[in-house]
Write a structure and sequence with these properties.
The chain has 240 residues and is α+β, with helices and mostly antiparallel strands. It folds into 3 domains: 85 residues, no CATH class; 54 residues, bsu07140 like domains (CRO Repressor, 2-Layer Sandwich), CATH 3.30.240; 70 residues, bsu07140 like domains (CRO Repressor). Helices cover 42% and strands 17% of the residues. The strands form 2 sheets. Strands 6-5-7-8-9 form a 5-stranded antiparallel β-sheet, with no helix packed on it. A 4-stranded antiparallel β-sheet has the order 2-1-3-4. Helix 1 packs antiparallel against helix 3, helix 1 runs parallel beside helix 4 and helix 3 packs antiparallel against helix 4. It is flat and about 60 Å long.
Length: 240
């Protein structure tokens, strides 16, 4: 029993490590060759788990070979557009100015029911409301409505919204995110001072604390107390 547990832990760890070495993009957007490699890694990990007579190296060594092969394919794709098209394919326009390209649908083995479902998911009721719909190489459908159907943006309304960046997390699960403090030009003493103003003495009292590009710091405590916001930095001093 212990042997089975140890073998399983080793093989799962190797499989996870192999997927991590292949990069986050591989997990988020599977290209055709990446999908094949991911399936093969899972199969290689499962075989030694099921058969105690199969040595571990027969699962681990092929995983290493697949990771190397993936890195080689990725390098070739980066260096050559033709190789990229060979391994991953090319994006295909299936709707242009409201007109459905039935030949492109047939080539992709993508039927009308699937297309209409994807459009509804994107908030589009009719194909005629679509300016362009593109089937990406990852299999995701990118839908762009015609200009008259898209939501009005501040630019359309000639409204100056100013800069809006990503909020910096300062405390997460009661732990200080020390790497983010220098990004906002502040130190830990400054943060402790801001927290004391809100009545907090320890980081462990705080579930989440972040500061946005308006200079507002929001604090979510572990307790039932409501989140609080204070002006911690002048917006003109925001540097990230």
């Amino acid at each position: 029993m212990l042997t089975v547990l140890i073998r399983s832990m080793i093989l799962v760890s190797c499989a996870v490590l192999a997927m991590r070495l292949m990069g986050k993009r591989q997990i988020g957007q599977l290209q055709p060759f990446e999908l094949v490699i991911a399936i093969m890694i899972a199969d290689l990990a499962a075989t030694p788990m099921e058969s105690h007579d199969t040595p571990l190296w027969r699962g681990v060594v092929p995983m290493i070979a697949l990771v190397i092969l993936h890195q080689l394919f990725t390098l070739l794709s980066l260096k050559s557009q033709n190789m990229r098209a060979f391994f991953s394919g090319r994006p295909t326009i299936i709707i242009n100015k409201g007109k459905i390209d039935h030949k492109a649908l047939a080539k992709l083995c993508f039927n009308l029911n699937d297309l209409l479902e994807e459009l509804r998911t994107a908030g589009i009721q009719s194909p005629t409301d679509v300016g362009t719909a593109i089937m990406e190489t990852s299999g995701k459908l990118s839908v762009f409505p015609v200009s008259q159907q898209r939501a009005a943006s501040p630019h359309d309304l000639k409204i100056d919204t100013g800069y809006e960046g990503i909020p910096l997390t300062l405390i997460l699960d009661g732990q200080l995110e020390s790497n983010n403090l220098p990004l906002c030009g502040r130190n830990e003493e400054w943060l402790k001072e801001q927290l004391r103003k809100l009545g907090y003495r320890e980081y462990r009292e705080i579930l989440l604390c972040y500061i946005d590009t308006d200079g507002l710091m929001t604090t979510h405590p572990f307790s039932d107390q409501k989140p609080e916001r204070i002006q911690a930095i002048d917006p003109n001093e925001v540097i990230w």
